[in-house]
Amino acid sequence: MTDFNMNNIKKYEHELFCERYYKINHHSGLEVYVFPKEMSGYYAIISASFGGAVSEYLCDGEKVALPQGCAHFLEHKLFDNEDGRGADDVFSSCGAYDNAYTSSEKTAFLFSCTDNFDECLSELLTFVTHPYFTDASVKKEIGIIAEEIRGCEDDPYDRCYMNMLDGMYFNNNVKNEICGTEESISQITPDILYRCCEDFYRPENMILAVCGNVTPQRVLEITDRCIFKSDIMKRISVPVFFEPAGVRRGLVERKMPVGKPIFCLGIKDINIPSDPVLRLKKNEAANILCGMLFSASEQFYLDMIDRGLLSPGFDCGYSINKNTAYVMMSGESDEPKALRKEITDYIERCRRSELDKKAFEREKRVAYAAYVSDFDSVEDIAFSLLSFAENRVDMFEYAKILESIEFEDVKRVFDEIFDTDNITLSVVMPIDDDANKD
Amino acid sequence: MTKQEFHLGRGIRLHTVQTRKFKVSRLSVSFICKADSLYSPLTKLMFSVLLRGSEKYPTVTQINKRLDELYGSTVSFRCLQAGKRHIFKIICEFLDESYIPQKDIVNTFSGTLEVIKDILFHPKRNKDGKLDNAYIDSEKKIAIDGIRAKINDQRAYSAERCRQILFGSDPRGILIDGTEDMINEFNADDVERCLSVILDKALIECFYVGPEDGENIADSISSLFEEIKFRGAVSEIYSYKAFSKKNNLSEVTERLPVSQGRLNIGFICDTVPGDDRYFSMCLFNEIFGGSSVSKLFMNVREKKSLCYYCSSDYMKSSGVILVSCGIKSGNRDIVYKEIMSQLESIKMGNISDEELNSAKKILTNALKQVDDSTAAIESYNYEQLLAGTEMDTEYCLRKINEVTKAEIAGCAELVYPNAVFFLCGEDTI
After folding, report:
1. The CATH number fitting domain A4-237, selected from 2.60.40.2470, 2.60.120.200, 3.30.830.10, 3.40.50.2300
2. What is the model's pLDDT at position A3?
3. Which of A218, B64, B201, B286 has the highest count of CB atoms within 10 angstroms of its CB?
4. Cβ distance A88 to A267 under 8 Å?
5. Which residue of A has its CA nearest to B376?
6. What is the pLDDT of residue A388?
7. CA distances (Å), A275 to each of A235, A280, B93, in order?
């Protein structure tokens, strides 16, 4: 029987939104977040902090090296169960949708359903903690993932983005191909995968977020049945490589069969606050700033469209986590190099003049509205819960953090981030295009 | 949730769903036209020009600034295909005022409505009263860029090419985007004429999901269209008709220096919503290639490792099914054979209890989630409207659960391959 006292349940409430959620520190070490919401659908997502950026780590002092693409390979293979009935079969028999993804930082598994929630959650918690691999099943997966790698190689947007990361960073593993290469995945064996599971798929290294018409007690009962404290303690640490200022390459070019040149322009930021609240605050201030300078509400965007240097669909945003931070602008342009010059000139002009206070107020409203709109979907709530949990911030604190951002904060962030020496432009040009040559 | 329908006269209709479930409300205004190879791209261009600036908000940045002030209201534009019709839809989303911090008083709904009223009825004009040529030229360039950029997404590109081959000269195959040559030819007079034709003749369907009472919304929508005194259009009952022209299998191959080949097969299935076998066909598609436990996924991807994705998509408004997969180009024939053998296997009634139950539950799950988002509520109700059916989700759930294996096998007999498009990668060049 579930003993609620063994688990530290904390309730968080938001008066204006009439919303609440619960955080449970499960005795196994798993952090569980439950957001009750009166919707027909349920959404649950569990993540392990083991992503594509991990190429080596220390386990109780012992160094373990991994072939590139391990986390992603594991994401595929965890769906296999020993009884031959894959997790996909179980979710489908419940009418549920299931999926998984791997980023540089983590691997996440999720489902959404309207019926059979208990069975789905049990399956999710069970399959991610009960690996079953054979030589044959691993070998077969190599073919499927090789096809996925080929698909990524053909995707000009994906290539453009990866080339930007490769140009910006000297050492940061965020530039690793998450799927690996056809060569690296061929080195993956069941033993390597079992080892990764043992070391990273431990309750204390995972977070579960659930949203739907469900109580924390119900989620807790299911978690109690499926997740157990590990018998053996392990000290796992993933080395963080020192990343100097400046970029490895200012320009990365590639030709692919595209109809029009596409670009990703990154501005690398190495000033990453270690305090999660400060990091979140910097993230919000920087995104407000990106909106103030480059959104479709600003003159610069309009000028570039009018001059044909940009196409609609241009995007500019800032992203930050513990190890990586950058501004990224992406879109299509007939002349990406000329656009880069316009962007750097504009940044320098902004440095010499005052930023626009009215634009600051508008962007704060836009950020607030985007935050509120997340509460309309069980999926968005589950993702938000997970993201705030990873950053160790209460999701209801966000409105206060946003409110606390002053115009001065944004000015400071401008000086910190918008350094034109830290820019990498990645371009994918059409195969027959010679027009944009210097 | 309270659902209401208002006939506002002049071929303008409003559908409202009153609910307090959401913090962001949604209003869409759709202009519904017959698919036409020339007028559809022109209409798309015309709306893009309108969205560039109005009398009160002469530039796109001024429109966006106003929307940002309204706590991040959004106005977006989408073009959709539904059988032989094209739909030009303006979508507004705005925050429910009760969630705005108390220090601000902002009327998000009426503010957003005021913006789209200015966009629709007071486009930016030059001193001579003509639409702005610079905006028209700029939007023409953007439209052409969009056509050229289609190849960037090879999966979507190859699916579109397959549909074109399948439909041939039928209106269902008309591309809303048109061609580069066509766009180049359009001039300011064409755009002006298109605007007056649309405002006079297009059927207008508005849809609102949010906390306001339907009567209040009807008053607001009436005032949105108050400048149109008379219109030639009258509301009509729509319907879908299946594309059932059986051709000899036509096949087109294009070569591109890419690593992954894309194989697309277009099947006719002679079934649209409203037909007796419609629900059986939905289940057929689910079992064939609609999910990650479908026959195509389990056999072509999982058992044979022939691809990363292989799925089927039932285009209900045209009564066709499209199969698409990403493969090693050298495996084209093996994959084609495997897909066809999965179809044959369903025809033979080779459907397990588990396959049938999973398919039923997946469709049930999707239907039950309709009420969980403003976009899904709108989309479900639009589909009923355009199909000329009045099936509520309860009815659909019951019908899905009544379908038998024999009925699904019977549906498979109607599924006939008509077109193949193969984007051949470099491993065979």
Report:
1. 3.30.830.10
2. 52
3. B286
4. no
5. A377
6. 95
7. 22, 9, 35
